[in-house]
Amino acid sequence: xxxxxxxxxxxFETRFWRLALYVGTALVVAFMVMPIVAILPxxxxxxxxxxxxxxxxxxxxxxxLFTSQRWSLAIWNSLFIGVTAAALATVLGTLAAIxxxxxxxxxxxxxxxxxxxxxxxxxxxxxxxxALFLGPLGLTRxxxxxxxxxxxxxxxxxxxxxxAALASFDRNLMRAAANLGASPLxxxxxxxxxxxxxxxxxxxxxxxxxxxxxxxxxxxxxxPEHRTLxxxxxxxxxxxxxxxxxxxxxxxxxxxxxxxxxxxVLKRRQPKTTR
Length: 275
Fold this sequence. Notes:
By secondary structure, the chain is mainly α. The chain folds into two domains: 2-39; 60-268, Orthogonal Bundle (MetI-like fold). It has eleven helices and no strands.
């Protein structure tokens, strides 16, 4: 009887703490998601004010978002800078990850820390330092400088994802390809790349998301013609609280959701190899 009562007590305590964990998790998720969900209905508000309660249903703010010169230019800048910076970050981050993963040298940990520093250093510090460095050289207010800055912010994510993919890569496959007469470039393209490409694509997606969402650097080194979607939203909030901001926020939320879902799909397609 005593053992049975102890067993019931243990079962009750386990269920209680499991329920408390579920409730706490649900509250945390709700706290994080509710501000995002609250802004979405405002993008269909029939009123020209960004306030509740809603006054009718209208899609005119999406029409303005995609047809007005100001917002369409911001969308184009975000896509152009984001795609270009992500491509550059992918190339640089992949090469760095391969070099750090396959190479053995002194100071390897220091090099890795330097490559990952943009993930740790506050963006405002990075942006101010970049403006002070590029300003005297006359290299600010140009697309190349913005793209390089965003690539520097996104490349650490590529280094992390590609390094994680290379952690399970069997180096003997590259040795076998070399013994069969394959050049290093051919072996990379036909042996390594098919096995680690999910990590490369995941890093590219994270790099694009970083550039697409970035606003501080673009404000420090960009000009009036380089207004991206986040920067246009920030400026519009200061000038006029139009529901077009909610429409832009909805579009950015959808893009972020699609990117996260794509990363999850790529994770499941990651091949498993053994050393």
